Amino acid sequence: MLKNLQNFRKIAVMMIAMLAISLGVNSQNYWYVRGEYTFSPPLPQGTFTMGFEDGSNITVDDVEYTEIRSWWEGVYGPTTEGIYRVDGNQVYFREYLYSDGYGEEVLLYDYDLEEGDFFHDDDEHPMQVTSVTTIIDNNGVERKKWEFSFMQLPEETEYWIEGVGSSRGFLNVGVYEPGDEGEVFDLLCMHNGDNVIYIDPDFNTCDIDEIEENSVANSFDIFPNPANETVKILNDSNLSITNIEVIDMLGRSVMCVEKDCEINVSELPQGEYFVKINASENVIIKKLFVNR
Prior knowledge:
By secondary structure, the protein is mainly beta. The protein is elongated, with a radius of gyration of 22 Å. It has an eight-stranded antiparallel beta sheet with strand order 6-5-4-3-2-1-12-13, with no helix packed on it. Strands 7-8-9-10-11 form a five-stranded antiparallel beta sheet, with no helix packed on it. A four-stranded antiparallel beta sheet has the order 17-16-19-20, with no helix packed on it. Mean pLDDT is 78; it is low at 1-25 and 209-214. Among the domains are: 28-109 and 164-210, no CATH class; 217-290, Immunoglobulin-like (Sandwich), CATH 2.60.40.3080. The N and C termini lie far apart (73 Å). The chain has one helix and 20 strands.
């Protein structure tokens, strides 16, 4: 009788584990990061919270991928960043190139790396594994942790958590902008559906419930986006627009329109821009993609 009961418990545990795995596969992954702009004005300054989320499963070149999107509360999103796939202990990524579809597949993570191994060794800032340890995540699951150092930037560090991603955020592996201008990202947390998988101990918060919705910013939108000719500013507020400024990713003002809700971007090179909308005493920043 006791043996049969023990066998029943083993089967029950296995069934629960299989159910948990199946639920995890079908649940959506979310990553929250703290970002900090150090660009010169008029770009946004200080810290902000961004989210990354799984989207649809899509097939590209006969290979199945998962779409990954980003959003910045009150500014833009969700916006497709690209697609990724998991193959064993490797994660591969293809950047979304708008009119050109997707870029070449690159290795985003290699969870087979050992101490002393290099990653991005042909890049400007190669990373070397300094240690491989284990941690216990928020659900009591043991996960490997890789510590890295940048060979050309010894003061910079990064770590990976198995199945979670980089301490800089899921898509920011090895990203470092030297100098006074650039972006700095730190992973806050990662969760699967409503289940928090990992919280960065340096922050000890997920910040999910602390993202404040900017009702003024959400009253404005730009359409179409991506665009290649004319962009319209959609204004659902009672605020009058003073002027609209288009700013490139280096912080340079490339266009300014006075009191108009339409701007012509046909002469701008393809790429990402910020649209700065001055409405009464409010400054609203929206992200614009110019597509050729």
